[in-house]
# Entry
Amino acid sequence: MYGDADTIAGLDAKSLLADYQQLLSRDQIQITIAGDVDEAAVVHALSQWPLDDRTESQCR
# Structure
């Protein structure tokens, strides 16, 4: 989210939550993981996120 001081001052928790929920439901998301990780733990953690499968045409 970008804006000047007046725009940012006008933000509230409700509008930020709505933007975040829209991001989770519509935006293209790339998750990159590097390093020595437990793959099963990562897969499990990501499965807990509220992300639905989406096609490129659904992304804004």
Summary: Helices lie at 5-9, 13-26, 39-47.
